[in-house]
Amino acid sequence: MVSQLEKASALAISGPNTLVLKFPSTYNGEREYCSEATRLQRIEAVLLKLTGRGWKLRVETTTAPAVPQADSGPAPAPVENGMAKAQRLRDEAASIPLIKRAIELMGAEIKRVEDGFNETGEEGVKVAAPAGANEQTPVDEEG
Q1: What is the CATH number that goes with domain 2-62?
Q2: pLDDT value at residue 127
Q3: HEC string of 49-117?
Q4: Could you tell me which residues come within 8 angstroms of residue 59 by beta carbon, excluding any fewer than 6 positions away?
Q5: Average confidence score pLDDT of the chain
Q6: Residue 112: helix, strand or coil by DSSP?
Q7: Which candidate, 85, 118, 77, places its Cα nearest to that of 100?
Q8: Residues of CATH 3.30.300.150 domain(s) within the chain?
Q9: What is the pLDDT of residues 50-106, one digit of tens each?
Q10: Which of 51, 60, 108, 130 could be 102's S-S partner, Cβ–Cβ 3.0 to 4.6 Å?
């Protein structure tokens, strides 16, 4: 019976101790199922137990369109807070081979990753060599 009740699009108070359960016309079968006298009595008994008050339940059809159920489609993506985003960006940066190697060899730490870092998703990062790094330095063979 729960799956039929879930198809109701609205629940309204229609006077003292009277609830109206409204079903869109596309759910006529569910409306009829819930309208059956013994089922109405069971629902009213549950309402009494939950609220401590006696309720009269009325079932109606509405012309409003059906509201999509929660299980109809993919779940929305979770919202990422600032700390989670910062950690994700650090983890992504740490997976870049050059940075990973710097961490391994020199004990480097990632303190901050700016938004937009490595947006292209490239595996390698080009680093400009310091001035004069390409010049040949004579090697003292005597040691």
Answers
A1: 3.30.300.150
A2: 42
A3: HHHCCCCEEEEEEECCCCCCCCCCCCCCCCCCCHHHHHHHHHHHHHCCHHHHHHHHHHCCCCCCCCCCC
A4: 20, 21, 22, 23, 31, 34, 35, 40
A5: 73
A6: coil
A7: 118
A8: 2-62
A9: 888 888 888 888 776 655 555 555 666 666 677 778 888 888 888 888 888 888 888
A10: 108
